[in-house]
TrEMBL record:
GO terms for biological process: regulation of DNA-templated transcription. SUPFAM superfamilies: C-terminal effector domain of the bipartite response regulators (SSF46894). One of its GO terms (molecular function) is DNA binding. Gene3D superfamilies: 3.40.50.2300, Winged helix-like DNA-binding domain superfamily/Winged helix DNA-binding domain (1.10.10.10). Coiled coil: none annotated. The keyword Transcription applies. Keywords: DNA-binding, Transcription, Transcription regulation. This is LuxR C-terminal-related transcriptional regulator. Residues 126-191 form the HTH luxR-type domain. PROSITE patterns: HTH_LUXR_2.
Amino acid sequence: MTSPSPQTELFVEYLQETLKCVVEACHHEAPLPSSPCLVLIDSTQCSLAQMMRWSHIDKIAAFNVEHEDDAISLLLNIPFSGIFYRQDSLEQISKGIGKILENENWLTRNIMQTLIRHYRQQQQIAFQPVMGLTQRELEILSLIASQQSNADIAHRLMLSQHTVKSHLYNIFRKIRVHNRHQAIQWAHEHLNLYIPKRTTEPES
């Protein structure tokens, strides 16, 4: 899933030759072909909300990912089977896709360890009330910490953006912070959640 370009055509041709399978380039806003074996998403062309449209696919991978922090933020929201970075060679990408098609994951050891630590901590806080926060508020706080916007949170939790903002108001009041950045830092200090090193502009 990407935008059409001469580079995309060459990429598709290379994968078809090396993997000996049918590879089809689709615009990121177009519907998926029926029953794909693997969906490969260009992370520079698709928003998180767009990517989540395909999260039900059994095998899904992202390419053109810039940094490991970006990869982990994606994986905290979508069950990718593989991550390919912008600097990866065509040979590396082809090898990784082959492994994914063989029902293996293509993720670094460091990413796997980070995800394991995150989900273990999530299990712990699920049974430990913190500062009077409800389970829904803890869930939203963890999504804020993974750099999701209000729109992304609303889409993921099937809530209105107004409801998300109401939850954020209650969260800020309970943990005694004044903005999104402070809430992320609070989550890092008190919940031991994963916080990407590269942060985006806070959204009110």
